[in-house]
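Problem 12. The chain below contains 94 residues. Write out its predicted structure in token notation.
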Amino acid sequence: MEPSALTESLQKRGLIRECAAGEAPTEWSTHKRYDHRYFPRMNLMITGRCNYNCLHCFNAADRSPLMTEWKFHDLLALLDQARECGVNAVTLTA
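Solution.
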């Protein structure tokens, strides 16, 4: 079977590649079934600090510590839990 133009384009850009003989899918690319998949994506704001003071934004420009900032180990745990719940895309914002 000849590859499609889309397949060739994605291969040229390095977004996909042909599997080697006997190669198994990674954990992330293996099909999974989730009975309660309500959140296929999530937005994650990693900090509320900002050095600007935009009128339309709620983030403080005073650089004071926030109670809602993530500790790195907590962030990693959250991402692991999100994956277990079926989240397959994360948008990071600051």
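Discussion. Residues 36 and 85 are 8 Å apart (CA to CA). Students who got a different answer should revisit the alignment rule from Section 12.3.
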